[in-house]
Amino acid sequence: MLRKSTIEAQSALSTYCRNGIETELEGAKLDRLPHYRRLVYNVVVNALNTAYPITQKYVTEGWEDLQHRFFSSHYCQHPQIWRMPEELIAYVAENEAELIAKYPALIDLLRFEWQEVFLFMMPDLELPKHGDAAPNLGDKVVLEPEMQLLILTYPVHKTHPSKLIDAQPGQYASLAWRERETGKVQFMDISIFYALFLEVISSEELSVQQAGAKAALHLGLSNDESWSSNLQHFVNKLQEKRLIFKSE
Amino acid sequence: MNITEGAIGVGYRRAMTDALLDGTEIRPDFVELAPENWIDVGGTWKKRLNQVADKYPILCHGLSLSIGSPDELDYDFIAKLKAFLDEYDVPLYSEHLSYSKCDNAHLYDLLPIPFRQDAVDHIVNRIRIVQDMLARPLVLENVSYYTPVAAEMSEVDFVSAIVKESGCKLLLDVNNVYVNAFNHNYDPKAYIDGLPLDSVAYMHMAGHHKVQPDLIIDTHGAPIIDPVYELFEYATERTKPVPVLLERDFNLPEMAELNGELNRLRDIAASQWVNSSSSSHAS
Ligand SMILES: [Fe+2]
């Protein structure tokens, strides 16, 4: 069993490394302690800057302060540092109302940037068995599992960070996937209707037509006949990029 | 995969991948990597890692085990670690005699443990749990530190007690001995003499930076300096042949320069450990 004073000493040093507030530490050379804070904090800041280069440009005032608040008050959970930056998203959503008011696209931008990091790095997922022919409206389909959808309030996926401050809220969707050949992450701006269609078809065993109808009904597009021919175009486009396949 | 005693390896950085696969400018006998940087990684880097693993034996040197932490061990993480070590047939897994998580927060860097008997007992207990879970010996490294914290015994007594009482193996980081001896005014050779040298299973060599007249920071960002080579010679005279790693994490030089350091280490190892054969990868 560790003695209380041992635990307290360990906690005091780690707390100091997290918040940088000078502290009494039994038997320590006080002039050496700032090196620990510097070394620890550099590692964290580098990881956050690497994961969020665009956010760093968007939050022109307060990015450094945000990093400091995050690391001092948040308890980083992931043992792998490359996964740690994801924790910033929930932290900001729960604790940073003032910053979000100033930078309304902040959460969307963090999610968008993290998605790219994660898709690039994530474990390989096997492509399910599928048929060879291009899917038609009446077919059931399987989707590329190394693909993710992001529903956004701000068009962070198609706006330069310097213009983002003027962006208007709305409903946007971005589709991202990791190319099997190159390992590169690619993006496609898609409509909310297509996003909804993808959500439906990945969660229910429906044909393209049935999933499209469900998405159209949800969005109040049922009377508009054009959605089904548009949907066939969209499916063709996904099929060309090898993101959707006819079921076996 | 077996690794020859006296083999000389290099710390794998992603920027080295092409040179390692090519193998003309730099030819280590093995590479060492941090499993935390590779567990659950797919895509491009998984493919690249597999190519490197096809060509070189892989040793692992962890970052997040936090063996000296007051917090509970992370059993999920250790299970993932074991799967990774098994997948890459890793013959040697080492970690740091330090802590990197406290109060349920990861710090992603190495903090010094109070040199105290209760910490020894605590760590000895945890080493046994980790060794059982991983089904392989744990090799623990003497870390560099810049200040003692709440110490009640010397560093060498602390390290020695843990190794002797737990039966774990020792990763002797020769540069860290040099750095600590400088920073804390002790004799590095006496420190080495005080360690249970029979337990040394692995050695690290690296460069460092002097940031103040009385302080060296262990940066792994510069070439190894001569006094550290001398200390390495001193250590190799007193240990059985073990794998030796060159750590270079920052300011990566030309690969030929790095290979020069590998060759110098190889020469020293070969002359000290006369009965050991150097690895086949080097020839
Ligand atoms: Fe080391």
UniProtKB/TrEMBL annotation, chain A:
<feature type="domain" description="NGO1945-like C-terminal">
    <location>
        <begin position="149"/>
        <end position="238"/>
    </location>
</feature>
<dbReference type="Pfam" id="PF22106">
    <property type="entry name" value="NGO1945_C"/>
</dbReference>
<protein>
    <submittedName>
        <fullName>Uncharacterized protein</fullName>
    </submittedName>
</protein>
<feature type="domain" description="Putative DNA-binding">
    <location>
        <begin position="9"/>
        <end position="92"/>
    </location>
</feature>
<dbReference type="InterPro" id="IPR018640">
    <property type="entry name" value="DUF2063"/>
</dbReference>
<dbReference type="InterPro" id="IPR054098">
    <property type="entry name" value="NGO1945-like_C"/>
</dbReference>
<dbReference type="Pfam" id="PF09836">
    <property type="entry name" value="DUF2063"/>
</dbReference>
<dbReference type="InterPro" id="IPR044922">
    <property type="entry name" value="DUF2063_N_sf"/>
</dbReference>
From TrEMBL, chain B:
<protein>
    <submittedName>
        <fullName>DUF692 domain-containing protein</fullName>
    </submittedName>
</protein>
<dbReference type="InterPro" id="IPR007801">
    <property type="entry name" value="MbnB/TglH/ChrH"/>
</dbReference>
<dbReference type="InterPro" id="IPR036237">
    <property type="entry name" value="Xyl_isomerase-like_sf"/>
</dbReference>
<dbReference type="Pfam" id="PF05114">
    <property type="entry name" value="MbnB_TglH_ChrH"/>
</dbReference>
